[in-house]
Write a structure and sequence with these properties.
single chain, about 180 residues, mainly alpha, about 85% helix, globular
């Protein structure tokens, strides 16, 4: 659930979002918004990583992740194969990135994104139907957020700004989800 390599990989996907030329916003303005989004995302990912280094938060995240995975596998036995394939893709992507094989890296990104979207649907279904697991996830989010605020009291402002920028990007990109 909180795989930092996967978060980094998704952040790389943000870099591949094409900029639409169909609106009146200048290219420079779009690039400025996206750059600020990347900077804040990067900062929040670093804070999340630091918060997850806390033993209590880390254990809570691991327990939730395991419980969610078990519930997803109970619902669909192919989920475990998808999770394993995603891990394999991350390793292959890192190798393709190191060797400069952009075609392979792009294909891996596409496959990773497809599998991630499928897994997110499974997660959403489980969390909608399993109240106990949903509450466990909410408690983890609260713990993580509080620990991040302990590390940097500016977290609420960063999150609010990120949401604003995300809305601007969605508007600029024709409601593409990040």
């Amino acid at each position: 659930m909180f795989n930092l390599k996967a978060v980094k990989f998704l952040f790389v996907l943000l870099l591949t979002i094409p900029l639409s030329a169909q609106d009146t916003t200048s290219q420079e303005e779009r690039e400025k918004i996206i750059e600020e989004y990347k900077q804040i995302s990067s900062r929040l990912m670093e804070l999340q990583k630091q918060a997850l280094s806390d033993l209590n938060v880390s254990k809570q995240a691991e327990n939730f992740s395991q419980n969610l995975e078990k519930a997803m596998v109970r619902e669909d036995s192919t989920v475990l194969n998808k999770i394993n394939r995603r891990e394999e893709i991350i390793s292959k992507f890192e190798e393709a990135d190191k060797t400069g094989n952009q075609t392979e890296a792009y294909n891996l990104q596409q496959e990773f994104q497809e599998i991630t979207e499928e897994l997110m649907v499974h997660q959403k279904n489980i969390l909608e139907s399993d109240e106990e697991l949903r509450k466990e996830g909410e408690a983890l989010e609260d713990s993580l957020y509080e620990k991040m605020k302990d590390i940097d009291p500016e977290v609420p402002k960063l999150v609010a700004r990120l949401e604003t920028l995300n809305n601007q990007i969605q508007n600029l990109e024709g409601d593409k989800k990040l």
